């Protein structure tokens, strides 16, 4: 349980930042102020400066219809750290809302939201969190819906990158991996408010960067570059957000018949040798799990931020839950 050292900073001691219904379904609805509040609160929770006990005593339902390690355990540990309790099922296949017995997600939300104060949901279908939010009496937090979005991961990424780089304004931020992934979409939508100088993609050959991601960057006059070799990002970028090149475990990507490569092409892999050869100072982030896109020989280098990113994730999840529960 969090030890209270002092009260909330007055600036963030106000209601939920998540708008009507208090749901967090997408990063597209978050304002720069919202992100600042959440980062500030996460930072104060990390240092013990914030009083997280206002949300104590609530019950959070963790509904994970899709595989998860960090997000599931991260929300669980954040729930306990806030003095709340977590409920959920080890196997959502044993719930009534599975493909065989077919209770709708809407009915699932109507039922579960009468037994808890907030719902965290991960599901393989795009739009699943929004469907649940439509029938939920309590805030719904999207913990990944198909190929669509993963807003809490993006908030964690911004929090971790701000801490690593101090500020993102004017920086070069690169993405490795499949640019269609849900973590990428949610993060680019937040990055455009940070005003980096450029966003660089190093996608696998033949995978176009999705139109909505290009539009999000160009609306804010952020330069967009596509490169074919991760060495260039190692040389020129301040941070690289790696994601897997093979995303087939999330299911089939919409709108393309492209199949993920089984292995990351050599030109796209990050290794300690490449970091040394390029004299790279780029900070490496990853929502994890990784496959072979970052070699474990990078783990002890000062560039590697991905495990620190996991440590920080607890505080951002606490901040998100606290804001979601604040209106209760
Ligand atoms: C995601 C996962 O585990 O599926 N990672 C995470 O939540 N930290 C990656 C993803 O959603 O693409």
What does this molecule look like?
Helices cover 35% and strands 13% of the residues. With 328 residues, it is an alpha/beta fold. It has 2 domains: 16-149 and 313-325, Aspartate/ornithine carbamoyltransferase (Rossmann fold, 3-Layer(aba) Sandwich), CATH 3.40.50; 151-310, Rossmann fold (3-Layer(aba) Sandwich). The protein has a 5-stranded parallel beta sheet, with helices on both faces. A 4-stranded parallel beta sheet has the order 2-1-3-4, with helices on both faces. Strand 3, helix 4 (128-135) and strand 4 (140-145) form a beta-alpha-beta unit. It is globular, with a radius of gyration of 19 Å. The structure holds N-carbamoyl-L-aspartate (NCD). Residues 68, 70-71, 144, 150, 153, 181-183, 287-289 line the site of N-carbamoyl-L-aspartate.
Q: What Rg, in angstroms, do the CA atoms define?
A: 19 Å
**How many β-strand runs?**
9
- Strand residue content: 5-15%
Low-confidence region ranges: 1-15
Distance linking N and C termini: 20 Å
Number of alpha- plus pi-helical segments? 10
Named once each, the bound ligands are: N-carbamoyl-L-aspartate
Order of helical and strand elements? HEHEHEHEHEHEHEHEHEH
Q: Provide the domain count.
A: 2
The main β sheet shows up as:
5 strands, parallel
Task: Give the CATH architecture of the largest domain.
Answer: 3-Layer(aba) Sandwich
- Helix share of residues? 25-40%
Spatial strand arrangement across the major sheet: 7-6-5-8-9
Mean pLDDT: 90
> What is the overall shape?
globular
Q: What is the assigned CATH homologous superfamily of the largest domain?
A: Aspartate/ornithine carbamoyltransferase
Classification by helices and strands? alpha/beta
User: The CATH topology of the largest domain, please?
Assistant: Rossmann fold
Query: For the record, what CATH class of the largest domain applies?
Result: Alpha Beta
